[in-house]
Amino acid sequence: MQQGGDTLDSKKIVIIDDEPDILYTIKEICLLGGWQPILAADGKQGYKLSEIHKPDLVIVDYHMPGWDGITTVRKIRELDGAVSILVLTVDERQEIAEKFMIAGATDFAIKPIKAPDLISRMKVNLEITEIQRKRIKNKQQIMVDKGISTATLNIIHRFLKKHHEPLTIDEITAGVGLAYQTVHRYLQYLVGEGRVMVIPEYGKIGRPKNKYKLR
């Protein structure tokens, strides 16, 4: 499989997808962002390339022959506890996101791919990898619970701290640059920990809309 050329200071991104068109598209997005793409057509190849190249980000498709996305995520997470793993999926169900995050996924990008959205998502996840690696180097905790990383939790917590007014999940998602499913998972964790309160906002019609605010 074709790989991007080496650049001394560029971040390495392993892209795992069985669709050649998707691989090509994300490769071009990586090159546009100044990153080095490393391409894999299936989960096993992606795992081997991740072991060799020690990437700064791994992008994994959900539906693939052989190892599916969840298996691939779990194997790569066992290999590298710090690297961000971004899952590509057309399935937006929260229960699917939960399974991926328990397996070790960091975030999600919904197909069809839009270059500006994906570049933004990749930048956030590259930042998370950098934070996680620094924490490992300093022997600090990188996971506070299954599927909950300290780096991502801190990004969401810092954003909420900057805003005194309650915010919806959509507003938080737009502000932190992470997927709705990721933000939902972390907010539920913070609510369970008693660090965030849920404030229902009642409109004239329909169900109340939940907003979230630090306690």
List keywords for this structure.
alpha/beta; single chain; Arc Repressor Mutant, subunit A; about 220 residues; 9 strands; Rossmann fold; two-stranded antiparallel ribbon; 5-stranded parallel beta sheet; about 50% helix
Descriptive report:
The chain is of the alpha/beta class. It folds into two domains: 12-138, Rossmann fold, CATH 3.40.50.2300; 148-214, Arc Repressor Mutant, subunit A (Orthogonal Bundle), CATH 1.10.10. It is built from eight helices and nine strands. The strands form three sheets. The protein has a five-stranded parallel beta sheet, sandwiched between helices. Helix 2 packs parallel to helix 3 (69-79), helix 4 (94-103) packs across helix 8 and helix 7 packs across helix 8.
